[in-house]
Design brief:
The chain has 333 residues and is mainly α. It has a domain of 226 residues. 74% of the residues lie in helices and 2% in strands. It has 13 helices and four strands. The strands form two sheets. A two-stranded antiparallel sheet has the order 1-2. A hairpin with a 5-residue loop joins strand 1 and strand 2. It starts with a strand and ends with a helix.
């Protein structure tokens, strides 16, 4: 695939093998950072590298990682989605409405909640691609709308799944009890494999990179940019819906007030993983490494009894370093 330049032309000066090598280097650097951070906490506290704590880290990665998967597609196109946190809370509430209030079986209620997330993404896509609203403003508005609807629909009270144990097992159950791996971790792994396939092996992924690299040149080549942007935001919404199912299944209830702040951690995971905020670059592997880095940091700082406010400071500094590294990479290309 040739990469469009700012003047709308294409060049072979940046061949596929060179781009792939740079992407692999970014992934290796992110993975090396993960190893360094993990080793530091392992040496600082012997309770950190235990098997049970590693499982806890993976479990805590599920929600952020799932949200980050869809956000990766959006950011690669050069967009942003601030609605994924509260959108997740709204999808969790809708899952409760479908299963608890409407009495739908879990097998129908879960897909309905995920599709509702897709509807949120579809609205975002139409606002951004068709109405030409800035992604920041469009998704900020949706963030507020989703937050309000979650409270209105649930009447500001949690919806409990106590009479539906099959639902909670989606997250907390164990397909392989001997390994003590929660089902939510398996779901995240499957979602990551699917996202990786879509991004690297399909037309959707190719156009996602192309739009982020040079939207004008992509449009001039005959590609319907508006339609594919809508598809990308809708896909992100589906991952948001899945995250809503996973978090409500984990808590055993749909909490309408949850969600705020998750969008920032998901975006941070994407950026830490090497995806450029300017668009055109990124990978699912990098995103998953970024999500793990955030989870390892949070878990390690908690084990070391670092106050929450200082945890936020440290995470903020990590994000600043990641964004600065992205700026340096752009200057070098």
């Amino acid at each position: 695939m040739a990469f469009p330049l700012t003047d709308g032309t294409e060049t072979a000066a940046r061949p596929n093998w060179l781009t792939a090598a740079k992407n692999r280097l970014q992934q290796l650097l992110a993975f090396a950072s993960l190893i360094v951070i993990f080793t530091f906490f392992a040496l600082a506290n012997s309770a950190f590298p235990t098997y049970s704590n590693v499982i806890n880290i993976l479990f805590s990665t599920v929600v952020i990682g799932t949200l980050a998967l869809g956000t990766t597609f959006v950011i690669i196109t050069g967009g942003i989605d601030l609605s994924i946190g509260t959108g997740m809370a709204l999808c969790a509430v809708m899952s409760g409405v479908f299963i608890v209030d409407a009495g739908l079986p879990v097998a129908l209620g879960v897909p309905a909640a995920v599709l509702f997330g897709g509807l949120i993404g579809l609205v975002n896509g139409v606002n951004v691609a068709v109405l030409k609203l800035p992604p920041f403003i469009a998704t900020l508005a949706m963030m507020l709308v989703a937050q309000g609807l979650a409270l209105v629909i649930s009447k500001s009270t949690p919806i409990y799944f106590s009479d539906h144990p099959g639902y909670t097992k989606i997250s907390t159950g164990e397909l392989i009890p001997a390994l003590n791996i929660p089902n939510a971790v398996v779901v995240l792994l499957a979602a990551a494999v699917l996202a990786g396939f879509l991004l690297s092996r399909t037309l959707l992924g190719r156009y996602t990179y192309s739009i982020g690299s040079n939207e004008a040149a992509t449009a001039l080549s005959g590609i319907n940019v508006r339609r594919w942007k809508v598809v990308v935001y809708t896909l992100a919404g589906l991952f948001t819906g899945l995250a809503g199912v996973l978090i409500s299944a984990r808590l055993g209830s749909a909490q309408p007030a949850t969600g705020m702040g998750y969008e920032l951690q998901a975006i941070a995971a994407v950026v830490i993983g090497g995806t450029s905020l300017a668009g055109g670059k990124g990978s699912i592997i990098g995103t998953m490494i970024g999500a793990l880095i955030i989870s390892v940091l949070n878990n390690g700082l908690q084990i070391m009894s670092i106050p929450q406010e200082w945890q936020n400071v440290i995470l903020g500094l990590v994000i600043l370093v990641a964004v600065y590294a992205d700026m340096v990479r752009k200057k070098e290309t």
